[in-house]
Amino acid sequence: MDGDETTAQHGGTTGSDGERRLALVLAQRLREDGREARVQAFWVRPAWWLVQALCAAAGVVASVLAVGDALAGLIVAGVALVLAVADVTRFPLLRRLTVARATQTVVSPPVAGPGDRAVTLIVTAAVDRPRQGLQRRLGAPLIALSLVSLALVAGCAAGRLAGAGSWIGFVQLVPTIALLIALAGFLDQGLADPAVDDRAPETAVELVRVLDADPPRNLEVAVVLAGAGSALGAGLRRWLDGRRAREMRPQDVAILHLEAWPAAGGDILWWRRDGIVLAAALHPQLRTAATAASADLAPPGARVRSGPDATGAGAARATGWPAIAVGVGDDRAACIAFLLGLVRHLDEALDSGAPPLHHVESGVEPL
Is the pTM of this model over 0.90? Predict the structure, then answer.
């Protein structure tokens, strides 16, 4: 079965029939490789962009209101800021009013028995195809831009209420324009055409096939191909929350997330920092392994990126899981070689002759 030709006939946005068909195809391919694979269905509300667009629009309204009624502007901007922040946490309020869609996650447990090796390497990728809006095409941090601008509009309204001079109108103009840009970006993100690109889950399956043929000494390998990846990593976060409830511990796993990033091109790309709103450092030992794998390549090595880009790794890291993201570019063979190098360096760090990753030393976080 030719992976590229097969998945090209399937695939789609979050909750679409194409996404569900692709999940079934990938599960069957894992079974053909001798792995157990199950498909888990769940419901998700993927319209994060709509909520953020509404909050950005409310911020523009608040800015206009504040000129004549500073208190009203402050209230509207404050409420919009609270709702926008809540939407990127585990407690989204406005998004509960949007349409729910059914999506699926493909899970393949380790071939080795649970606990046979020191750490479980979870290879992840999103099954759904993201829409190619401004945030993804340009890597623009729209959510961060919107939240900061809402806070500034609220601050300007508070300044007007406190009796600030006319100069505050010039200051207020800047975040208002930024909110208009963010609003346009959110609408573009939600309405743009989806990418016809299934490189990430395809590469994940291929990588696991190679690792199964030559297993790491200290890593058992699991696969999670999550639905709703473009909904701020909702599928992966849902699965990880379920594993945490079943007492899977962050120090016993390492998450290697593959991202089909449009700006990757022919380069090998990995993320040093990522997140949904702020770009926080990804796990230090995984970054060390990626740096070592990059040094193994011919110069200039792998390209390093810092978000916030809301990859699956950023979503997982935000809730305390050790993770790193690697962009899958046009040269899949080179990407596989880099990924194998990363896994090899991580495996060597867990070798019996080296201190275990669980050991906290010199400020390094436990895996």
Answer: no
